[in-house]
């Protein structure tokens, strides 16, 4: 029986109304639903290699980790889950990563529509999709570009696994898995125990394996608004628009700073960088600098790094990647807007300026909100996890920020968690994944009804 | 031979010019000079009870800790230093505390003069001294009010020590020491091993000892601009002005939140609160909530508290007390301005508003600067201390924030530091003490020479 046209129209109208009224809430709802579906799938007895139903805490944690493209695991992906289970995880990554990109772009579209003409004209150079303003085309572009990048990465990685003696089906599966996992900044690995030591010693010096994964992670962490600009105007940085310029510059600075700090701190550590010949140390340093933001792969034993290096990684993870990307954190532009405001203040300028543009006050207020809410979330999550686990702050802070920023790196605090800890980290991943994105969009979409302004008074600050 | 009038005039003019041009730099210079003098004094052989010259690292650390009214110690104050040494420390606290108050008030005066008439009229209700605009009166007011409060505190404490069987000179000395130490938020104790267990078990349930110290610390942490307003208009909160209203309200909220969290987390801990009868638990909870911001006294064994409680204290310490007070941290109003901006953003309002007033954008930019610079300082200090000490992050972060915010609480990381660690913590105390205050003033004093504004462009944030 067909639904009568009038009812269908009302349903469609109501849905459209809900989307218009609270797109941020819709985004969260969509994410939670998808997580529910993948939790159910991973609870199938056939999803585990033992054939026993996975405990709810592990099924939920893994589903959240996959859909939120985090990569934290409570069980070893390759040994605990069956082939079916791994396929479900890969599907979760693909759906989650794609969902993030589409939702972020849609929210961006809504925001740019509400900002009025002058703002919209400026937002035009953000993505072609936004300019064309068509949801269908947007989704098609995201899918096509993602698949294209992932297939290229897989094709580059395939011969590496074949050369190492893997069978064609196994090599193809791993190549595809790492292609999807890296471009989506998911951090899941399909080999038992982490990235494979294909030459027998360690993956840390395996240039052929590491470089494609690094490229995939960095590209994925920039975000589609930037990727599309780069594709169209690669040779003309002045025409990239402020957002792409800030994201690329900020990413470059963070990569260099991270590499210098991690390299300096671990260079002589015989259990991490110190064990490698020095060209490989450079590779491993670069890899370790890329992955906190927020690829989540690792070629060195993080538990053997100094706690000072952990804290540097904490900071890199907290900042995360680009806006509207599969990377997490408070985002590169958020930090940059805050830093630019401080620089302007120090120079006595009223406006934060960069690349010949003025950053609006509204962006600063948004950045303060995202930064403060992010800090509070990490603080509350850390206090809760300290109370639950009894682990030291070094470990707990690392795992909490890794979850919040959907990074997936671990220094060992996630493996043997009590169920309460698994649920708290799951909540942090969901909040971290949907939070900053929807918070920023929701705030940007608000409009004040107030017409009068109160008298101004200046408190003493600092 | 007298200096010729002309030279004298030139010198005076040059000095006045320096004060006008860079008052913030002058404040730092004054602090460093005072620290140098007290380091020299504590390096006298007679300053130690053994009669041997104290090592430079300990003399410097103690001088910095006293002048910056921090209270962190590398040696036990009562046993390591002689009577002379303790008197030097008390003098350091008095000079440092007084210096902070005068410098902060002077900087406030300069800022309010530069802000133009409308701003100055609003700033009037901050302190009587600012309104009268006379440096001499300002200094006299600060001295008289400080001495008055400290003497009252000492008079209340004196009989407590007499009742406990101390001789009159000893009791008077301790009463004076705690009066000065508490009102200046210094956190130094003159009894061996910490606050004394006068009834033989623990100071945690000693209401007569704890309450005056708590009152002294809270009053001192509000800052003179607030204290003078309270003295004159105690019964008329609506006429306190925005700064005093924000400081008092923020302090009250932080005290309650701190007490609830610390109380909840330690209530059943048999080594801290759990060891006390329950009325005393309330006192000890209140005491533990007051002291992180930034009195620095302790009646419970902090090393026995859970690491989750440590992290709550870290957050309270980082926020600290009121502006232009002897308390440290980024200051209550700084946090409040940031939170109000987020609340306004969430409600879709353009302006941050509170108590019927609009907080200017300039205050938000200042708060962002103080918050971000403070966070960066703690981060860099923590990485350095992790690398130097090899202690766990729990301990290192606590000691670093305690130093930066001049709190003086310790969970054991300061007692056996290598010299490099002592110097880093000393630097953090100086930066924390002079930094937020002078940073805020320096930034507020800047004026832009730029007349044109660049075109605006909006990056994606979050
Ligand atoms: K990840
Ligand atoms: K103190």
From TrEMBL, chains A, B:
The chain crosses the membrane at residues 24-44, 56-75, 87-111, 137-158, 206-230, 242-264, 315-343, 364-388, 423-445. It comes from the Bacteria. It is a multi-pass membrane protein. GO terms for biological process: metal ion transport. Keywords: Cell membrane, Ion transport, Membrane, Transmembrane, Transmembrane helix, Transport. It is found in: Cell membrane. The keyword Transport applies. InterPro entries: Cat_transpt. One of its GO terms (cellular component) is plasma membrane. Pfam families: TrkH. This is TrkH family potassium uptake protein. It comes from Pseudokineococcus marinus.
């Amino acid at each position: 029986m067909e639904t009568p046209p009038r009812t269908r129209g009302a349903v469609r109208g109501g849905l459209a109304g809900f989307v218009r009224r609270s797109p941020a809430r819709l985004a969260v709802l969509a994410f939670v639903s998808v997580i529910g579906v993948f939790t159910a799938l991973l609870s199938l007895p056939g999803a585990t290699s033992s054939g026993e139903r996975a405990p709810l805490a592990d099924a939920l944690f893994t589903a959240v980790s996959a859909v939120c493209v985090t990569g934290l695991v409570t069980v070893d992906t390759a040994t605990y889950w069956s082939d079916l289970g791994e396929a479900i995880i890969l599907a979760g990554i693909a759906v989650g990563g794609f969902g993030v990109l589409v939702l972020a772009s849609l929210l961006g579209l809504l925001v740019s529509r509400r900002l009025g003409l002058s703002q919209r004209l400026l937002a035009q150079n953000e993505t072609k999709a936004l300019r064309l303003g068509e949801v269908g085309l947007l989704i098609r572009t995201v899918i096509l570009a993602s698949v294209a990048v992932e297939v290229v990465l897989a094709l580059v990685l395939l011969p590496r696994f074949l050369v190492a003696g893997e069978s064609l089906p196994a090599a193809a599966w791993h190549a595809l898995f790492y292609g999807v996992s890296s471009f989506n900044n998911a951090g899941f690995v399909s080999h038992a125990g982490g990235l494979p030591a294909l030459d027998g010693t360690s993956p840390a010096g395996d240039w052929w394996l590491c470089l494609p994964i690094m490229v995939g992670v960095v590209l994925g962490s920039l975000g589609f608004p930037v990727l599309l600009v780069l594709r169209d105007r690669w040779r003309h940085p002045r025409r990239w628009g402020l957002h792409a310029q800030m994201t690329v510059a900020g990413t470059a600075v963070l990569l260099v700073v991270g590499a210098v700090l991690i390299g300096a701190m671990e260079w002589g550590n015989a259990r991490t960088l110190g064990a490698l010949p020095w060209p490989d140390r450079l590779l491993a340093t670069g890899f370790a600098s890329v992955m906190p933001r927020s690829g989540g792969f690792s070629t060195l034993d993080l538990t053997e790094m100094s706690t000072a290096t952990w804290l540097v990684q904490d900071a890199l993870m907290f900042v995360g990647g680009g806006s509207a990307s599969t990377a997490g954190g408070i985002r590169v532009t958020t930090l940059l807007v805050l830093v630019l405001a401080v620089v302007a203040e120090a120079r006595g300028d009223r406006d934060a300026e960069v690349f010949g543009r003025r950053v609006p006050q509204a962006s600063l207020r948004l950045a303060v909100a995202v930064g403060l809410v992010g800090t509070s979330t990490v603080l509350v999550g850390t206090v809760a996890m300290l109370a639950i686990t009894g682990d030291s702050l070094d470990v707990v802070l690392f795992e909490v920020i890794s979850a919040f920023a959907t990074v997936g790196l671990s220094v060992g605090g996630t493996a043997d968690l009590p169920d309460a800890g698994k649920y708290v980290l799951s909540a942090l991943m969901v909040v971290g994944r949907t939070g900053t994105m929807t918070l920023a969009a929701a705030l940007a979409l608000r409009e004040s009804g107030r017409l009068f302004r109160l008298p101004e008074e200046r408190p003493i600050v600092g």
